Amino acid sequence: MGIDSLLIPAVMFFALGVTAKLINSDLKFPEGMTKGISIYLLMAIGLKGGMALGKADFQLAVESIIWATIIGFILPIIGYGLLRFRNKINPFDAAAIAAHYGSVSAATFLTAVAFLEMSGVTYESYPIVMMVIMESPAIIVGLMIAAFTRKRLAAKEGTGKVKTEWGPLLHEAFTNGSVVVLLGALIIGATASPESLTKVMPFTQDIFMGVLCLFLLDMGMEAAKKLDTLKKAGVTLVAFGVIMPLIGGSLGIIIGGTMLGFSVGGTFLLAILSASASYIAVPPAMRYGVPESNPSYYLTLSLGVTFPFNVVIGIPLFYQMTIWYIGT
Amino acid sequence: MSIKMCTGKSIQIVINSTFENKLIQILKKNGLTGYTQLSARGDGESGVQDGHSEGESNVMFIVLASDNAAATLIEELNKYRNMGYHIFVYTHIAEVLNSDKIQICK
């Protein structure tokens, strides 16, 4: 599997989006369209996962949820440790960036699903549930690290107690739009009658890949926009944007293949989840919860570095690594 | 016939949309229950704010207030600015016609 893996429409539309921006095309999506498309994609993948989950093994589903929570807590801690190594990145930026890397990117996951479906590789439904679970723990870790940093700095500077408003922050972590749509669609898919679900399939499955192409076209334009700010981010952060997905992806392969006993398809999807960085759910949570951090860093890294890296290099690389790790 | 206008401040506040609910709370706490809200795009230290995602959307609030209420509001907003929130505040002297409806004239 070489260049072929890049020749799927979704990846090619991503490249088209990047090209459009680089040649200064006036191509632009109408306001609100991307948000609408992302709700559709989350709903469609949630329904699909829910339908499969209805027939899945309960014990393995519970184990998947537990492992998703563990990964969600471990990855941001690893990320924070890496970023704070040699004290180059300030603790608030490090906490906010690490939170992005502990959470997940639904677009990267969906591109990986497209890759498996085009390659005729089957996969379990559990990674879809894991995607829902993995959205939130990293936000909590990021907020906690920032709160501890604030407390430490206040004690050092003798400025008195610093209060963190946890209520609205935790509310945001657990009720952000993508979690609600995904979890809701999963439950609907698992509990609605199969006959009634076949009626919505033309909308949720038949046109899914086409809509994903549109979404990736927009993501390509957004990623290219972030290229300008790469210089500002600096070499250390850009290197982190490539190294962290490699660490996360490898951890995902080990947990998917060994701890959960997933097939190649399922393990690969867990690797992609662990390698991806959020750019929908986490940025608003960090903007509000960690206002001391610079948003241009985490948005540039997750959308301008890690997302393109995963789509172009990560997907074929993690697929090969999965095959190597658990065999065909 | 001369029309009576009352004088006060027009306060323009640019914030990230994630701070919107908090700002509304602050305004109400200060007795400023009326405001105009607009979507705002721009560029600056936080990067391009083009409304593409929730973290990259700015909003602008225009609030009319008496000089005293404006000073109290700005003082409170400054506390949040010191906490790291990106808040831009501009004021202008405003002459307002709707004197019966706006806090500026009460």
From TrEMBL, chain A:
Domain of life of the native organism: Bacteria
Keywords: Membrane, Transmembrane, Transmembrane helix
Pfam families linked to this entry: Sbt_1 (PF05982)
Transmembrane found in the keyword field: yes
Keyword Cell membrane: no
InterPro entries: Sbt_1 (IPR010293)
Membrane-traversing stretches: 6-24, 36-53, 65-83, 95-116, 128-148, 169-191, 233-256, 262-285, 297-319
Protein name: Putative sodium-dependent bicarbonate transporter
Protein's organism: uncultured Sulfurovum sp
